[in-house]
Write a structure and sequence with these properties.
Elements lengths: L5 E8 L5 E7 L4 E4 L9 E4 L8 H6 L5 H5 L4 E3 L3 E5 L12 H4 L1 H20 L5 E4 L8 H15 L15 E4 L4 H4 L1 H15 L15 H30 L20 H13 L5 H7 L14 E2 L6 E2 L2
Antiparallel strand pairs: 1-2, 1-6, 3-4, 4-5, 7-8, 9-10
């Protein structure tokens, strides 16, 4: 879904029409098929030339995947497919991913990486030009021999920082420094832009510039609330539409991300609940990760605000 803007899930039905297996079909190997007499709604053909799976190895490591192996090269009816998309701004029958929406940013970042690598790999550092004196008249062979000797002695990243001694009259720097090409700033800018495409804060990607403990939890909570949970909500809505009716009426499917809570805020919330006498002993123990006491041992009693002891009501 995030890479292509479209997620194709094959809900494999049994003889009673209920889904018993589910497989994610990579969009790269699925090609749409127009409706026909045999396929009133159309379907998707699974293209084996586009798949990099070794079918024999793929089917041998787990017998549960043999069904997926059998569908390669065949058409799956649209009625068995669950297709989730991020909306495309132009084409209503297609999806657009963050990768596609920010393609220029990603391409620019790749070009910066390529340029930095090429500069390090191909440049002589320090990169200079030696101008012969007016009285010197080297032949072409002598110039080529000097250039070859220079490349061998000073070219490549392993020779970075070596001193060069020359009898020429003039030494001129040729290669722009990384600071002049603004590699550092541009790398960080495009990195942050690409992370923003996916709604990922730097801390969630392992990038931390330091800061307070509360800011760390705030960034992770933002990531869960604004990025992860909306994706899960979208998937759950489609699951509710395609799966829930098979198992009963008025059923819904919900997917909830693990919440990131600041321990300091949790302690303040618990202290408020205890003062208000609205939290039970077993509820408090569950939050602390402790086993419940049970009703017979006072687990259903309210925690006191004074001594944090059960209050008999």
């Amino acid at each position: 879904l995030q890479l292509t803007g479209t997620s194709i899930v094959w809900n494999v039905p049994n003889q009673f029409g209920k889904t018993v297996h589910r497989y994610v079909i990579p969009t790269a190997i699925a090609s749409p098929v127009a409706p026909s007499t045999d396929l009133p709604e159309g379907g998707y053909r699974i293209q084996t030339p586009s798949s990099r799976y070794d079918l024999e190895a793929f089917s041998s490591y787990s017998s549960s995947h043999s069904l997926l192996q059998q569908v390669f090269g065949k058409v799956i009816p649209l009625s068995q497919l669950q297709i989730t998309r991020w909306p495309h701004p132009l084409y209503q029958d297609d999806g657009q991913s963050p990768v596609s929406a920010g393609a220029r940013w990603i391409d620019s970042a790749n070009q910066i990486d390529a340029a930095r690598w090429a500069q390090m790999n191909n440049g002589a550092d320090p990169s200079i030009v030696v101008t012969c004196g007016k009285d010197m008249r080297p032949t072409r062979e002598e110039l080529e021999a000097a250039a070859a000797m220079f490349d061998q002695k000073y070219g490549g990243t392993e020779n970075t920082g070596k001193a060069i001694f020359t009898t020429g009259e003039q030494v001129v720097s040729l290669t722009a420094t990384p600071r002049e090409m603004d590699y550092n700033a541009s790398f960080v800018e495009f990195r942050d832009a690409i992370l923003a495409l996916h709604g990922v804060p730097g801390i969630a990607a392992g990038i931390s510039d330091g800061g307070s403990y509360a800011a760390f939890y705030a960034s992770l909570k933002q990531f869960i609330s604004l990025t992860v949970q909306p994706i899960l909500d979208l998937l759950a809505e489609d699951d509710t539409e395609h799966l829930a009716p098979q198992f009963g009426r008025n059923l819904t499917i919900e997917i909830e991300a693990t919440q990131i809570d600041d321990p300091d805020l949790l302690e303040k919330r618990l202290a408020t609940d205890i003062r208000a006498q609205i939290i039970k002993v077993d509820e408090l123990r569950a939050i602390r990760g402790l086993p419940p006491l049970g009703p017979e041992n006072g687990g259903d009693e309210i925690v006191s605000a004074d001594r944090q002891q059960p209050v008999h009501s």
